[in-house]
């Protein structure tokens, strides 16, 4: 099967405009004859559901949380990029496009990324019109900041809660359509299977998480906006409930999974404090604007810090190693996320980590406070410092913060074409659940942009192109394909409940996380990956023999929910390892130690790997088939990143 | 740390429910409250007992899903945090901790400590939005908004919809939640177009859901993890009365 | 008129009725107190009795007093309705409530405070208002009913004075919350004025009941 990206012909800047003209339209009066299922209510899902309903389609919106407003987009702190050039500092659609392509280490499609940059400006207009209270200057106009090392100030923000404000904006638009009767909400429902008929997506099977009821929902198209799979690592900045199940079950029904090994590790998270740790908390990247990252110069001194024999503030300047400033004098503490993360790992691997677990580095504000005064620093980061103190008990005004990288975002996801349709006709994937726009690494403040771009401004155009060719008749849910899918789901649940083993679901999840973090995390080797593959497979076998899931299906059963998600993570983890193993290069969030420059930087192999790796599910324990979509670069020149 | 936990257990909405007491040992002060319950649940599963069900998701204080009434206060003794941000260092060794679900007619218990807060969604559906469709909106900088107004609107908009205000209120009133949304939108020019209708509809829905009335005790604001101010309730009252008396709705 | 009934039966409308009637009663307290001070005049009650006569016979005052009774009743009935509704909003209570962590005691117990004040009102009305209208009261030198005598006789009893003083303490607590709460309900909450209103409320809640209580105390000890 050949993957067709369906990128429109023509010059880069005209592709989207031309495409919008060329796509088939559904007559306004006929839109009400089509039903669309949207799974997930984050930025990508809520914006899509609301916009599609506004157009006149009947939308069913699903989420596993108790309300659509809880989706994890809400936790994004930093901001949202848009090429508005309000600051008159030389930003443009092309520059945002260029930065995104370059930041993604040339592993994303030019056409998609350009479109993203193009619609970014509309997103801000839309959100302001909804009543999103973005930060403003004294003159009443919108404020911007430079984010994640960008050379221009293009990031719009709402204090440290941009994701929350944008999501509540999308949620309010969604709520309005619920009131209009165009959207029906299904909270506390989890999608457990995709239903395809003659190769086309025709609906989903869900479980009501309160009653356990297995329900079929039929539609003319299905949009997955179910987020990323970072929780495969157990510890991540994702929400506890974030999972890959919807995407993975779609994958098992034929949708290709693209670039699953591209995972973003965020350098500034609060370190793990012990075995009880359930998730990791991100501290905004903006902290690196003023904080200096360091560890003690010697192992011995680090040992003393860990034992509490010496206070960090008492360590002489000469005994401190500001390793980012030392290695990357031009960018210093503002090197990209992957570089900062990897270097933290290296100094900790050398035994110079600074907390009990040995896995933490300092982020010190002493000099910034000395330079700008405590009030200025408090004004910028007060809430973050409070949050840090809350969690760790340490006061960052007096002692340096301790930080360590954590899994934050997954660039990989379901393969989609330019229309955001997967290779399964009628099945779409938006937001983090698809692979499309960030390449091998995502820029800061671009996740919110992509989620909303997909939902507000892309899918409402492109879905019509497919639906215009579809018949109005809805597939009845007693169709054999639905019955078969329901049976698969029920059998799977029965199997989980019948094992009655001796180890809890969390046990397996934690074990999987440890393997993935160790071998498929910040730094990967062929040897480690090969070993990890065996370990994950073994763990999966043990899971299906020895997992303990109490209770029944017909109740609110948190263990059962988790078990079904972890079962999928165990399969996905293996595919991530396969993907990481096959990609014999380093790029963005994928660093293979075998492929680095003499200076220890990521070394791409554009000759052999400038493609999207799309994996096709065959059957359990049969290797997935690799399909390649070549990436063509006509507007940018591929360069090796250098932050020296 | 060693603790005694008195936890409300209720199989489902129709079950009567009762407290059950658990002893837990080896609690680290660095654990979050929810991680402590995780540990308890692992122990319960070990003993083939049904783990304690509770709502939680982001565990960083922003999704608003966690909802435990701890020792007589929503989200526990610490101010300005949600249950997931509450750490065990706020408790002392040997303490007995009583954990209950949010109690309100409009928030029926789903199981154990999890409640159904869809009433909040319905209140928002009644008018907690600006009626603009996607596309065709003016440039974001077309209408300047004074920084102070934008900041105040933001303060109201930080509500996470957790329901602690309802849980804390002796009348199970939802006025802080409802007023936060009414305030945010009525302060911004974009929201002012529909402000009178919005206040009327949202208040009507709030009453229909069975929430109580406000006694101005201020408990809601004191317990709100985001510190939403009581002035929002005053603003809602103004908007509501002004609209009822002045509009032609 | 459905919009009006809608408004007045909404949760906010009911609170507004509480607030407006409460504010009226707050003003009434000042009027009442200024009348009471005439008890302290050293004229054997002549001035006070003349005042009492005026207050019970002047048509305008009479009319106003009916309004007063209505507002007191409305305040009481509405509080009962609200209390019942509020109780229904939480059918299952908490096992442990730590109200002191988030609110003032008086604000949580306005119903109890109000009930005690209501009981006081009944005693108060029975003692003087009823006596004045239907009781067998001798005339004073000016030919007015000698209500002063009734009052000074009652305030010669220590337990009666005690009831008054204790009731005024309850009133003080009731006002300590009610005063500023009434403004909040009406939507008056402003960075500049609210601290002043709150301060004034506290001053009012202390001064007025203290002044009321001082009269029986003075008369008791002066006897």
TrEMBL record, chain A:
The active site is at 337 (proton acceptor). It comes from the Bacteria. Its cofactor is FAD. Residues 35-448 form the FAD-dependent oxidoreductase 2 FAD-binding domain. GO terms for molecular function: electron transfer activity; flavin adenine dinucleotide binding; succinate dehydrogenase (quinone) activity. Keywords: Cell membrane, Electron transport, FAD, Flavoprotein, Membrane, Oxidoreductase, Transport. One of its GO terms (biological process) is anaerobic respiration. Residues 509-643 form the Fumarate reductase/succinate dehydrogenase flavoprotein-like C-terminal domain. InterPro entries: FAD-dep_OxRdtase_2_FAD-bd (IPR003953), FAD/NAD-bd_sf (IPR036188), Fum_R/Succ_DH_flav-like_C_sf (IPR037099), Fum_Rdtase/Succ_DH_flav-like_C (IPR015939), SdhA/FrdA/AprA (IPR030664), Succ_DH/Fum_Rdt_flav_su (IPR011280), Succ_DH/fumarate_Rdtase_cat_sf (IPR027477). It is found in: Cell membrane. The keyword Transport applies. This is succinate dehydrogenase.
TrEMBL record, chain B:
Gene3D superfamilies: 3.10.20.30, Alpha-helical ferredoxin. Residues 150-180 form the 4Fe-4S ferredoxin-type domain. It comes from the Bacteria. Keywords: 2Fe-2S, 4Fe-4S, Iron, Iron-sulfur, Metal-binding, Oxidoreductase. InterPro entries: 2Fe-2S_ferredoxin-like_sf (IPR036010), 2Fe2S_fd_BS (IPR006058), 4Fe4S_Fe-S-bd (IPR017896), Beta-grasp_dom_sf (IPR012675), Helical_ferredxn (IPR009051), SDH/FRD_Iron-Sulfur (IPR050573), Succ_DH/fum_Rdtase_Fe-S (IPR004489), Succ_DH/fum_Rdtase_N (IPR025192). Its cofactor is [4Fe-4S] cluster; [2Fe-2S] cluster; [3Fe-4S] cluster. GO terms for biological process: respiratory electron transport chain; tricarboxylic acid cycle. GO terms for molecular function: 2 iron, 2 sulfur cluster binding; 4 iron, 4 sulfur cluster binding; electron transfer activity; metal ion binding; oxidoreductase activity. Pfam families: Fer2_3, Fer4_8. Belongs to the succinate dehydrogenase/fumarate reductase iron-sulfur protein family. This is Succinate dehydrogenase/fumarate reductase iron-sulfur subunit.
TrEMBL record, chain C:
The keyword Cytoplasm does not apply. NCBIfam families: sdhC_b558_fam. GO terms for cellular component: membrane. The chain crosses the membrane at residues 12-33, 66-84, 105-125, 157-175, 196-221. InterPro entries: Cytochrome_b-558, SQR/QFR_C/D. This is Succinate dehydrogenase cytochrome b subunit. It comes from the Bacteria. Keywords: Membrane, Transmembrane, Transmembrane helix.
């Amino acid at each position: 099967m050949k993957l067709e990206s369906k990128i429109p012909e023509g010059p880069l800047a005209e592709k989207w405009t031309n495409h919008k003209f060329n796509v088939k339209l559904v007559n306004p009066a006929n839109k009400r004859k089509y039903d669309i299922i949207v799974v997930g209510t984050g930025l990508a899902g809520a914006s899509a559901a609301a916009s599609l309903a506004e157009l006149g389609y009947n939308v069913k919106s699903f989420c596993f949380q108790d309300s659509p407003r809880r989706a994890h987009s809400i936790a994004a702190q930093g901001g949202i990029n848009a090429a508005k050039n309000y600051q008159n500092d030389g930003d443009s659609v092309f520059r945002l496009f260029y930065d995104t392509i370059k930041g993604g280490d040339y592993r994303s499609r030019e056409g998609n990324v350009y479109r993203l940059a193009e619609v970014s400006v509309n997103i801000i207009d839309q959100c302001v019109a909804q009543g999103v209270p973005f930060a403003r200057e004294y003159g009443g106009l919108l404020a911007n900041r430079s984010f994640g090392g960008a050379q221009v100030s293009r990031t719009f923000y709402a204090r440290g809660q941009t994701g929350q404000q944008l999501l509540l904006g999308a949620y309010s638009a969604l709520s309005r359509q619920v009131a209009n009767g165009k959207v029906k909400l299904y909270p506390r429902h989890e999608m457990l299977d995709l239903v395809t008929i003659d190769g086309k997506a025709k609906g989903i099977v869900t479980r009501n998480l309160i009653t356990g009821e297995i329900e079929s929902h039929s539609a003319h198209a299905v949009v997955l906006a179910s987020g990323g799979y970072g929780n495969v690592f157990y510890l991540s900045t994702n929400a506890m409930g974030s999972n890959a199940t919807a995407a993975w079950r779609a994958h098992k029904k034929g949708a290709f999974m693209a670039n699953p090994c591209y995972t973003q590790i965020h350098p500034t998270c609060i370190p793990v404090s012990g075995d009880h740790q359930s998730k990791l908390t991100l501290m905004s990247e903006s902290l690196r604007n003023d904080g200096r990252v360091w560890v003690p110069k010697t192992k011995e001194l680090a040992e003393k810090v860990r034992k509490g024999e010496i206070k960090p503030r008492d360590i002489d300047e000469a005994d401190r190693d500001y390793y980012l400033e030392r290695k990357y004098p031009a960018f210093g503490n503002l090197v990209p996320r992957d570089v900062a993360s990897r270097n933290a790992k290296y100094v900790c691997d050398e035994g110079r980590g600074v907390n009990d677990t040995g896995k933490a580095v300092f982020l010190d504000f002493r000099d910034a406070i000395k330079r700008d005064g405590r009030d200025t620093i408090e004004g910028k980061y007060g809430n973050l410092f409070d949050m840090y103190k809350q969690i760790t008990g340490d006061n960052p005004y007096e002692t340096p913060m301790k930080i360590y990288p954590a899994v934050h975002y997954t660039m990989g996801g379901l393969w989609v074409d330019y229309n955001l349709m997967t290779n399964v006709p009628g099945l779409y994937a938006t937001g983090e659940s698809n692979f499309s726009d960030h390449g091998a690494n995502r820029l800061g403040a671009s996740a919110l942009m992509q989620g909303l771009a997909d939902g507000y401004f892309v899918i409402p155009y492109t879905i019509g192109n497919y639906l215009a060719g579809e018949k109005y008749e809805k597939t009845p849910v007693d169709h054999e394909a639905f019955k078969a899918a329901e049976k698969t789901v029920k059998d799977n649940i029965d199997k989980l409940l019948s094992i009655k083993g001796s180890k809890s679901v969390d046990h397996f999840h934690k074990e999987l996380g440890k393997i993935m973090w160790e071998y498929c995390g910040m730094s990967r080797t062929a040897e480690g990956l090969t070993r990890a593959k065996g370990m994950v497979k073994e763990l999966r076998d043990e899971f299906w023999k020895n997992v303990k899931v109490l209770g029944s299906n017909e109740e609110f059963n948190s263990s059962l929910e988790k078990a079904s998600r972890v079962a999928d993570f165990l399969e996905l983890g293996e595919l991530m390892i396969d993907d990481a193993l096959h990609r014999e290069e380093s790029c963005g969030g994928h660093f293979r130690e075998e492929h680095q420059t003499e200076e220890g930087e990521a070394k791409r192999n554009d000759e052999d790997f400038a493609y999207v790796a799309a994996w096709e599910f065959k059957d359990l324990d049969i290797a997935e088939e690799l399909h390649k979509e070549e990436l063509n670069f006509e507007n940018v020149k591929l360069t090796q990143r250098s932050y020296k | 740390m060693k603790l005694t936990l008195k936890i409300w257990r209720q199989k489902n909405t129709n079950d009567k429910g009762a407290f059950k007491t658990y002893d837990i040992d080896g609690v680290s002060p660095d654990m979050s409250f929810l991680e402590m319950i995780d540990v308890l649940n692992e122990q319960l599963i070990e003993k083939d007992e049904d783990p304690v069900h509770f709502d939680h998701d982001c565990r960083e204080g922003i999704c608003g899903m966690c909802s435990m009434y701890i020792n007589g206060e929503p989200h526990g003794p610490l101010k300005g945090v949600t249950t997931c941000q509450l750490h065990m260092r706020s408790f002392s060794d040997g303490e007995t901790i009583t954990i209950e679900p949010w109690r309100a007619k409009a928030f029926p218990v789903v199981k154990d400590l999890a409640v159904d807060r869809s009433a909040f969604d319905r209140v928002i559906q009644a008018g907690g939005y600006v009626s603009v469709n996607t596309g065709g909106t003016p440039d974001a900088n077309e209408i300047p908004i004074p920084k102070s107004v934008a900041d105040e609107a933001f303060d109201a908009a930080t509500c996470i919809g957790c329901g602690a205000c309802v849980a804390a209120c002796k009348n199970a009133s939802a006025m802080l939640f409802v007023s936060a949304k009414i305030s945010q939108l009525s302060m911004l020019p974009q929201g002012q177009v529909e402000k009178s209708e919005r206040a009327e509809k949202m208040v009507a829905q709030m009453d229909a859901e069975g929430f109580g009335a406000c006694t101005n005790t201020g408990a809601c604001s004191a317990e709100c993890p985001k510190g939403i101010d009581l002035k929002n309730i005053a603003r809602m009252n103004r908007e509501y009365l002004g609209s009822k008396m002045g509009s032609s709705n | 008129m459905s919009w009006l009934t809608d408004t007045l039966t909404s949760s906010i409308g009911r609170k507004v009725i509480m607030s407006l009637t409460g504010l009226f009663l707050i003003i009434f307290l000042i009027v009442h107190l200024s009348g009471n001070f005439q008890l302290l005049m050293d004229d054997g009650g002549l001035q006070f009795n003349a005042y009492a006569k005026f207050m019970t016979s002047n048509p305008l005052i009479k009319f106003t007093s009916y309004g007063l009774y209505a507002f007191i009743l409305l305040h009481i009935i509405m509080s009962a309705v609200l209390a019942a509704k509020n109780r229904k909003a939480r059918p299952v209570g908490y096992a442990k409530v730590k109200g002191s962590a988030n609110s003032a005691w008086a604000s949580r117990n306005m119903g109890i405070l109000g009930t005690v004040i209501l009981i006081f009102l009944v005693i108060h009305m029975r003692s003087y208002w009823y006596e004045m209208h239907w009781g067998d009261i001798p005339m004073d030198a000016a030919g007015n009913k000698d209500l002063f005598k009734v009052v000074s006789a009652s305030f010669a009893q220590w337990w009666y004075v005690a009831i008054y003083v204790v009731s005024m303490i309850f009133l003080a607590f009731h006002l300590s919350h009610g005063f500023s709460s009434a403004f909040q309900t009406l939507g008056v909450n402003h960075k500049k004025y609210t601290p002043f209103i709150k301060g004034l409320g506290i001053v009012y809640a202390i001064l007025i009941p203290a002044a009321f209580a001082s009269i029986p105390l003075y008369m008791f000890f002066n006897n």
